[in-house]
Amino acid sequence: MLKLTRYILYDIVRSKIVIAYTLFLLTVSFSMFRMEENSGKALLSLLNIILIVLPLISLVFSTIHYYNSYEFIELMLSQPMSRTRIIIAEYAGVTVSLLAAFLIGAGIPVLIFSPTDTGITMILTGLALTMIFTSLAFAVSVKARDKARGIGSVLLVWFYFALIYDGLILLILFGFSDYPLEKVTLALSFLNPLDLGRIFIMLKMDVSALMGYTGALYKDFFGSTAGMALVTSVMLLWIIIPVWVAVRYFKKKDL
Amino acid sequence: MKRRITILLFLLSAYNCYSRTITTSPAVSIKKAIASAKDGDTIIITKGLYKEGNIIIQKTITIIGQSNPVLDGDNKYEIFTVSGNNITIKGISFQYSGYSAMNDYASIKVIDANNVTIENNTIINAYFAIHLSNTSYAVVRNNTIKGSPKSEQLTGNGIHLWKSNHALIENNHIQGHRDGIYFEFVTFTTVRNNFSELNIRYGIHFMFSNDDVYQSNTFKNNGAGVAVMYSNKVTMQGNHFEQNWGPSAYGILLKDISDSYISGNTFFKNTVALHLEGTSRIEINKNIFKENGWAVKIQASCNDNNFHENNFIQNSFDVGTNGSLVLNNFDNNYWDKYEGYDMNKDGKGDIPYHPVSMYSMISEQNPSTLILLRSFIVSLLDKAEKAIPSLTPENLADTKPSIKAFTL
User: Fold this and answer.
1) B167: which of A40, A137, B138, B402 fits an S-S bond (Cβ 3.0–4.6 Å)?
2) Is ipTM beyond 0.95?
3) Across the interface, do B370 and A210 touch by the CB < 8 Å criterion?
């Protein structure tokens, strides 16, 4: 399986898209840190990249890669290898390449210019989100029939997590503003990895504002060991469940 | 006649000679020493533990502690009750003064006194630590006050002044009381270089106190920061307000204040750095607002306040307000969120900056929406609001936002 992953990695690096992504991140983060007077503002821009661009790239790139290597997968299937191994090797190859791209493109600038708590939290969140959205992309693309449908659905997934979900939460918060909603929003934030990552970073970045109202509750929760353990396991679930779904469909799929 | 003058002179000199020094030790009680003392005497309290209940001082004497004597109130008594003129208390440790729901027991209570000096004392576990009422020209300097806070009802204030004037409070370190420093009906007083932290309510609390100055103090991590209420002509300069966190915690809470100055202060990591309610004619300039939740919350009931040359850096929200009426001036500040340009290179942005973001209005109405801060939908809403303002007050704007941060 490792061998297969290695071939996939070679293939990805040769296609140069990941290299372009790395360079894009590098340029953007370097120029942000150089341009802004205070690194806090640059981190803020980086936060937007992590919450918007990173999931989009992870989703679209993984989907395109899956459909492009369809023939390669078929070839592999003719070999004496289990389907589970093949799809996991594919997932590992894509994830590792995207993780490396993010670490080089955003991690290095952050470590150089702002090796603070906030910076490190951002990098960790970015890595987790990369794994989560690649895994979601695999679940969707294995299920979708062709490339067009796959990319379409993946865009919808991105749209949902980045925009629609928060809109719905906003609606709920206003619709039920007479009720205590702290615990409900906390539970709801577990259902969107982007929200989870964002709150995680916010607890470092906007702690003063958050301490105002319901924030104290979040701070207590995320600050405690139990809370951290829960968040980490929920993040892990967000990685594992979609991959598991992908494996299940791939095993039964008539290729 | 000559003889009479000689006698008079002799008597006078004898009177002067009579300014004695009385030394006490735990064996010789302080009460006795005070009883035998005359005006002008000095009492030296030597090292040891003294448990003498309430000690009343009504003579013009100086009481000095030598190598840190400890006066214990047994959790029952007020330790020193001071009344009179020109009294000095220096270098003594006080501990466990009593608690009472009826009286404001204090470690050192000063009533009806002039020119009292309280210096270099250490006061721990007191109900009230230093309590001054109806005093003039008191000096409270270099004291260390440390309480063990229980609840607002069971803990008194660190330094409490009531109906006093011309006092000087400086270089004190106060922690763990209800209010670090409390002023009520106090005028012409200076509060300087004090450090007030971890108090359960306010670091400093002003009520009905006019013409006071407080400068270069640090207020850190107090339950609710600093409150200045119902006063006028207060000058606040060069203070640090740090890490006052909580649902109703403010760097400074201003309520019904007028004709005051707030300048050269640093506000760092407070939930709300500056909260203004019913205030008028206040000059707020050359302050630094950094990494606060809200840098300024200004209620619509404020008028004629001027914000100039302040730096607003990395605050989650710059300005929050609760209405559309704006009678205050925000010109010529530096806002790190400003996205405009400066075509004529005069150092001022050419398009006005609106420091109230839509989301700060929304979270004012519905605080739990704060959890969506920094999400994509919220930035979209903010951008839309910037293009077509509907919720935010349109004339709350800085028409000359500075392009560069002021060097403060």
Assistant:
1) B138
2) no
3) yes
